[in-house]
Amino acid sequence: MFELISEDGDQGFPGRLVTRVIYTLTEDNSVNIDYRASTNKATPVNLTNHAYFNLSGDDSGETALEHWLQIDSSHYLPTNEVGIPHEMPELVSETSFDFNRTKRLSSELLVNEQQVQAKGYDHCYLLLSRRDISSRVAALQSPDKKLGMSVSTTMPGMQLYTGNWLAGTPNRNGGTYEDYTGLALETQFYPDSPNRDWRESNTILRPDDEYSHSTRYCFEF
After folding, report:
1. Contact yes or no for 140/53 (Cβ under 8 A)
2. pLDDT-derived band of residue 73, with 50, 70 and 90 as boundaries?
3. Phi and psi of 116, rounded to 5°?
4. How confident is the model at residue 140 (pLDDT cuts 50, 70, 90)?
5. Is the pLDDT of residue 28 over 70?
6. Where is the signal peptide (predicted)?
């Protein structure tokens, strides 16, 4: 368990926020992440996990773009040139953002303006199955389909980021990563939620409430 206490006014945010994150490894090859937070003043809270995944191994020479991905989602949030979502979600149907059927990430990469300005996928998906840790919302497979990873969460959204700007980041072998070496599947409230009236994505935590959400990454051989 990790704990962080952010005092009132830290980084400009109100309230004394006490945050705990618990990581649990299970016998079914899952990594469970449980987030808990409380505050003494109303304050925005949106916690996520920014791990990168490459199921071939980061030294395999394979990029994350050759992975297979499926996401249960009918809408995504298009963004402006600095990554802030537009006012309304858009349907994924008949676009390169549709992962309801499993496909390679590279199959429709950089085919529209949304992807070109982000240099790949860096967009939030509105999840169809949510609020239930037992419901799978996404599934990732290695290029040879010998290793898989499913994602389940209580959160309403998930950011898909294909490592578009990883080049130059140090790796553990003394070298550096290239772009697209790994991808992130970040379960969360929708980006820019404090400034929007999105019913499913209220990020304001109040003193009488507890922030309590969970995400599970389950590896399948």
Report:
1. yes
2. very high
3. -60, -45
4. very high
5. yes
6. none
What pLDDT score does 131 carry?
A: 67
User: Cα separation of 156 and 151, whole Å?
Assistant: 13
Place of tokens 């649990």: 24
Q: Of residues 62, 67, 186, 213, which has the active-site annotation?
A: 186
Q: DSSP per residue over 112-161, as a string?
A: SHHHHHHTS-EEEEEESS-S-TTSEEEEEE-TTSS-EEEEEESSSEEEEE
Active site residue 7: no
Catalytic residue, chosen from 50, 86, 113, 210, is 50
Query: Which candidate, 136, 133, 126, places its Cα nearest to that of 189?
Result: 126
Cα 28 from chain centre: 22
Going from N- to C-terminal start, the domains of the chain cover 2-220
DSSP label at residue 108: G
Strand partners, 69: 103, 140
pLDDT of residue 198: 83
CATH number of 2-220: 2.70.98.10
